[in-house]
Amino acid sequence: MLRAKPWFEESPTPVELAELAACEGEYSHKYSTLSPIGSGAFGFVWTAVDKAQNKEVVVKFIKKEKILEDCWVEDPKLGKVSLEIAILSRVEHANIIKVLDVFENQGFFQLVMEKHGSGLDLFAFIDCHPSLDEPLASYIFRQVRGSRAVWAGWTTGKSVLQSSGRHTGSDC
After folding, report:
1. What is the bridge-based pairing of β-strands 79-82 and 31-39?
2. pTM of the full predicted structure?
């Protein structure tokens, strides 16, 4: 498995966000970007608010140039996007956060998702709670089951895309 270094060690500041032009385009007409949550190899995540509904959401800004060449697919509804976006925009499962919108500008995809909880990752949570009671452990395993749904969607989506000649890579 390929591992990329984080693009940003921390999410960009509001000034850096503006300089990157990450929020430009259709996204900025519908959402106001609020505060950083985290970052990774392909981009960064911020909270935002839907201007019409005044509802808080989470936005993953994915830098297009960071997407591996073999991880681009042609989605019938979204056009040319990363495999991650193609799959997550289709997966519907009670334990998977729902994708609400997908936008793009010249440099970024803006993947808008519903906000759920504090966003603490599982490893950090277990470190904070080394003794899990049964209801909490059951809840965590429901999340794992949701991950299996994503995996099933990925493998199905990948085989469909491969059979149609739209995806040939194996590193995604």
Report:
1. unpaired
2. 0.72
